Amino acid sequence: MRRENEQLSGYTNATSSRAKLIDSLKLLVKENRILQDKLIFPCVNNSALSSLIKLICPSFEKETKEELIYLIHQFLNEEEFKETLHKLEQETRVFFDINYFREYITSGEWDNAEKYLSAFTNMNDNTYSAKMFSQIQRQKYLEAVDRQQKLPSDFAERAHLFDDFKVLVERNPMLQDKLKFPSMDKSRLLSLIKQIMDWWVPYCINVMPNANNETISLKDFPTVSNLRYASSILTDKPNQEGRPLDASSGDDSNDSSCFNDNNQSRESTSLPDADSAVCAKSLEKSVNLKLQLINEPSECRTLLLPDNSFGGRVVRLIYSHSGDFLVALTQTATHKLWKWQSNKQSLEEENVNMESQLYQPSSKLVMTNDIAADPKDSISCFALRGSHLFSASGGKISIFSLETFQTLATFANPPPIATYFILLPQDLFAFGFDDSSILVHCPCTKKTKAKLKGHQNRITCLAYSLSLNVLVSSGADAQLCVWDAVGWKKLCSKFLHSFQTGLVPETTIVNHIQFHPDQIHLLSIHEGQIDVYEAPTLNHTSQLVPDKMDLPITYATYSCDGKCIYVSCKSGHVKVFDTSTLELRCQINLTAYAQPGTISLELYPLVIAAHPLEPNRIALGLTNGRVHVIEPLESEVEWGKLPFTDSREFSTTFGSTALE
Fold first, then answer.
1. Deepest of 111, 345, 384, 593, by most Cβ within 10 A of its Cβ?
2. What phi and psi values does residue 585 have, to the nearest 5 degrees?
3. Domain 415-498+507-545 carries which CATH code?
4. Is the pTM of this model over 0.70?
5. Contacts from 359-366 at CB under 8 Å and sequence distance 24+?
6. pLDDT tens-digit map of 191-207
7. Distance separating alpha carbons of residues 414 and 361, to the nearest angstrom
8. What is the SS3 assignment for 125?
9. How far apart are CA 330 and CA 310, in angstroms?
């Protein structure tokens, strides 16, 4: 029956009527001036809890604050407030919960494991922290690739991996004193509350007068700065949460590479330092830099890998993902493989002096590529995929078994000549050719996904970012291009140039590019300069120009943790630069690693392979065909970590510019 009351005539049922009422109330609330500034909850930062602790006891000693933190931690643990509990651990950094960290490792939550670890330490603190971050980055990358290929997760491997992490945690000076939770007397909470109240009461609003016998106003009320939108931290040590720069951590430099022998002998002049305020600031930081100079074999650990063959210059060098073997490709299109014997009990037990052997299968086969018909087309490139090696030296691409050295297949018969190739997710390959084209191909389905055109000269290198899902290409046209790996459209491009003149270098070949482990910063290597860009926009962030006497640059690569850049030069020097500042930390001279009697102007490193797990270990491929593995002395831990009183140090400057 229709209701006679006009206001109720639209009433049909309780649900719809309540919905209309809510809408009306919302409108009234929004229009009410008294309520308008109370409708949006303030954005409180992640350190709100620690900021509150600082607010209620700002004048206490550090020990008193830590006692309060432990008591709150104990209470949260008893009440099983898991999320709040571990949030407090990260914000206050007084207790590292190894069991909680293990849950992240064994469940494969690598982002959360990295975030939790970075609350207590960062990769720059010490070698233990660097190894932990590098291993997390590497494992995250490998499992992401496995997911793309629909491979099952290996939980046993994760459990074994945690055992290695536990050793590093227990030996890490940043974590050692945070592993045991103190036994707290609950009555201590009462005394702490009393101390807090003794301090707090005089500041309570409208309770006590101030020194001028006036009522305390809100502006006099004690507050914690930066409670909203910025962090407020109890300890003096800032929490530097930067992605450590992965490893085989995600950058493809340890998966595939390309090298053109004919471009390494050209001399070029160094570009002058940029005449700008930015440049001046960068140079000012480096004026007082102390450089560690290594001249003798006794000043570092070095290993000459055994070799009874004469295969010509080493033009490519690559470590396996786990670092247990090393593959070299020579100018004569032959390969060499060295294996290391390790008991694998701990990451800490590996060092450069472990026994290595030049592997030769029982078949006595030699992995040899097809050679280009014209020597000037001798462009060498290869990539690892499990126990298979994809390789080319200007001819067809060969697939080898690393167990038997058998040639399993050949494809891509020139022309065009394959100049670079790289493995991508979803069983895809990207091939660069000397006709400036890039082919994205799926060997499983034998279908071409895309053919990319954007360069004016041959492709020199390819690099893939898993986190950005973009492919970056470099060419002999001094150009970098960024390609979307979904629709394969070109996102942007940029030409190599000098910071000072803005001009493209006379020699236009970009020899190599590589993603930093953070998968954002891109390293570009030219024979006269090294540049760093941010993907996917190719924002040019910094440029490094070595001394003229060291030019041309023959190769450069990030360490596995992204902490430093190794640069080899035709002078024979290997220079170690700090990634964040581009300051020169160490210079390793040819006399420190080359055999006596072999040193000459024609002997120098052509390629560098960074170890995927040990950030201070590198392998050098020389022009005489030999391979040397080097790392710092055990007492020095890192390259360039020496006191300034050491006799091997001297002041230096170098030409680097950085945009900030």
1. 593
2. -95, -35
3. 2.130.10.10
4. no
5. 359/325, 361/403, 361/404, 361/405, 363/404, 363/405, 363/406, 365/404, 365/405, 365/406, 366/334, 366/335, 366/405
6. 666 565 555 545 444 44
7. 30
8. coil
9. 9
